[in-house]
Amino acid sequence: MFTGIIESRGKLQRISPSGGNLTFLVESTLAEELKPGDSVSHNGVCLTVETLPSSNQYTVSAIQETLGKTNLGDLKEGDFINLERSLRGDGRIDGHFVQGHVDAIGEILEVTELSGSHEFWISYPPEERDLLVPRGSIALDGISLTVAELEDHRFKVAIIPHTLQHTNLQQRKTGDRINLEFDVLGKYIRRMAQNRS
After folding, report:
1. CATH of residue 77
2. Domain shared by 165 and 121, yes or no
3. What is the C-alpha to C-alpha distance for residues 48 and 35, in angstroms, rounded to an integer?
């Protein structure tokens, strides 16, 4: 479980294919606090730390199932990724509950720079419309954000300067694919409503 408040950006030093899987060597200041078996969100995808080859590097692997449902297969060596360690029971929840289980992949349709902030319009699968509400929560590449506007096939989020500076959104551009995780409360409500039908 995560909160969607990004702790650090990691840099992909190496991507190694193994069958249909990919192993990522990540450079991050978080590495010195990790141990094998820890869960870390990578662009909103929960992956397990496998090895710690140095004090500032660790490895994780994404299997075919994960690569098929997320944008991790789009990554290249040198790319920056959003990192968040799992939620501690004694900490504040500053974002919203994020599971690290990507529901869909959206596309960045438009990026607008405003005076002091940015707006991103993101596409989403129309069958997921009931999981989005204006001023509700959404996780984009693991970042907890608020839906500012909602239309049939797209939604808008407003990005404050702090978020832009401390996440991979500063490298994102129109046409990029982005991981979407809808609010877990909405998913449970939809499931209950389907069971009553």
Report:
1. 2.40.30.20
2. yes
3. 10
